[in-house]
Amino acid sequence: MMGRLMHFWNEEHSLTALLMLLLVWIFIVIPATRAGHIIDVIGIFVFFFLLLAGLLTMARHRIFQAISGVFVISAIGVRLARSVFGVSGLLPWDALLSMLSVVGMVMVVLWQVYREGPVTGHRVRGAVAAYLLIAILFAYGYTFISYLVPGSFQLPEWVAQAGAERGEAFFYFSMVSLTTVGFGDITAIHPLARSFVMMEALIGQLYPAILIARLVTLQMEARQSRKG
User: By the 8 A CB rule, do 25 and 19 touch?
Assistant: First the structure.
């Protein structure tokens, strides 16, 4: 099974498949489910096994492969313990390991998007997937900050009453911050939280410009190679 997943990451259509999975997870699964739901558990396994396969595909040394395997398995264990068994004390570890996991997934996706070769529709969709992953990354970051520094965000009443289950609200907040919409219903108060919001807003503005420039460069290089 792992061999097939590693082969999956060697094909560009994996980027389109990942984008479809992310769209379903962000806009359907997260709003419709709570911790412990079977769909949520399935989503956990799919995400982390795709991540593990991607990291192993990129790795060139067995030491890095071993570290990647231990890291991803630990992340799966913590997430399942919190989601299925309701171990609320693991929330900060869940958020932290999820952040690091998403960083790894962004690396895998951008490695596919920006490698040499002609620009295809799959690569463009992969770039969109990386953009969504950045929003997910900061959502986990906000969750981690809110646990470490209580009161670092001014939250609406319905979110404050949700207690630990405020991840859905931070996914929403991260998306509007990345796109610099900023409705103002959730506000960062603590300096660390504000720094994260400013960083995400800056990335949200720079990423499309850098992405377009890089893809255009790759396409021009591919055309010159064909002519040569």
Answer: no
Q: Which of 93, 68, 69 is nearest to 79 (CA)?
A: 93
pTM of model > 0.70: yes
Distance from C-alpha of 57 to C-alpha of 64, rounded to nearest angstrom: 11
Range of the domain at 170: 2-227
For the cut 70, the answer to whether the pLDDT of residue 51 exceeds it is no
Instruction: Give the tokens for residue 105.
Output: 């997934």
From the number of C-beta atoms within 10 Å of its C-beta (0-12, 13-18, 19+), residue 191 rates as exposed
Report the distance separating Cα 138 and Cα 173, nearest Å. Answer: 9
List of long-range contacts for 148-153, beta carbons under 8 Å, 24+ apart: 148/92, 149/190, 149/192, 149/193, 151/189, 151/190, 152/188, 152/189, 152/190, 152/192, 152/193, 153/186, 153/187, 153/188, 153/189, 153/190, 153/193
pLDDT tens for 174-197 read: 999 999 887 888 899 999 999 999
Exposed / middle / buried, residue 147 (Cβ in 10 Å: 0-12, 13-18, 19+): middle
Structural domains counted in the chain: 1
| The predicted structure's pLDDT at residue 99 | 86
Is 187 in a helix, a strand, or coil? Answer: strand
